[in-house]
Amino acid sequence: MNTYAKQAVTFSHGKGVWLWDEQGNQYLDALCGIAVTGLGHSHPAVTKAVCDQAQKLIHSSNLFQVREQIRLAEKLQAISGLDKVFFSNSGAEANEAAIKLARLFGHNKDIAQPTIISTDKSFHGRTLATLTATGNRKVQAGFEPLVTGFLRVPYNDTAAIEAIAKNNSQVVAILVEPIQGEGGINMPDPEYLPTLRKICDANDWLLILDEIQTGMGRTGKWFGFQHYEFKPDIMTLAKGLGNGVPIGVCLAGARAADLFQPGNHGSTFGGNSLACNAALATLNCIESDALIARATVLGNRIKSALTKGLAGHPFLKEIRGQGLMIGIELTRDCKELVKKGLDAGIVINVTAEKVIRLLPPLILTDNEADQIAEMVISLIQALD
Ligand SMILES: *Cc1c(COP(=O)(O)O)cnc(C)c1O
Q: Ligand 1 pocket: which residues have CB below 6 Å?
């Protein structure tokens, strides 16, 4: 169906940070299929994990013990410090699980209309509940009636939440991205997330972090919250988790880990052996190749090259981001740069109309990082 405004390019194969189209043109991939292929394309360890598992067992069912799922769950527990996981196939479904947990949490406290606070310019997915949580009218328009039980406040505005806390007894959770991705790489103020944690503690609410884009090392920590001293009650992951094999996960700490009982929630495919083995290989590689620290080094390298190369440019508004999640906001619409980038041999993204979004793979060499910066600078300099 006609769901995407597609570019006229068909990629046939990829290797590391490079993609080739069916005509044999080569592209530097600074997007990773939207923060998915953090280890680049056809990574040998992920390919081996997929092939090995496909020869043994792709799928059994969540009606049985799934060995690879248990292994992945243990690994995710170890790196997140959270207690339990639910596996899904996508980010939206991971957020659906989080929303359902929050509602159960509320009903267990006799809250009749459990309400979740989310933020303007957020993106949480395309299912009816997650598009309702999403702070972007374009995502919602045409799909009314929206789901009840959601309130929205501006990002970085804790006073708005404090005001709701004073006169709304139905709130059960805050759902927020540690850095807004689709919304334009919008950074949290330094005190924003710790303050949300405090507000949740003071009001007995759950703090739900949507780390679907920020997770898996992209910001220079496994998860965005690890730049701080607190833990969320619930965290969702997807995009970079399986390096391209579809998988999502909803993790929960003590206050939410034991809310689901058999029959409350489920998924036929979620957490099957193939997806979990791919994710295990992805996690192991990120760790063994020390790619999380690289994300910080490479991100700083790209940002400083961009800052230098674009200094004083009339269209430059701001360069921001953390690790390999980088936004370059211009003072004008720049959607045409996606096509111009492809013509020049680089895959980039433009979000929120004016923000060039770079989500390159964590396996970049210094030289490839410099190439990305140079190509993006040339694209911006060629704007008239
Ligand atoms: C991509 C994304 C989602 C949705 O994930 P899907 O796998 O497309 O359903 C949700 N939240 C954030 C922050 C995302 O970046």
A: 90-92, 95, 123-125, 177, 181-182, 210, 212-213, 238-239
